[in-house]
Amino acid sequence: MSEATSNPEVNEAQESAEEPVGANETEKHEAEEAHVSLYELEMERFRATLKGSIDAALDRYGFTMVHSLKPEEYVKQQESLGFPPKLARDFYNLGCVAAEEEDYEEAVKHLQQCLTIDKDFIPAYFNLGVVFELKGDGAKARQNYEKYCKRLLEQTAHPDYRPAHIEEREAEVRQIEHHLATLK
Question: pTM of the prediction?
Answer without folding.
Answer: 0.67
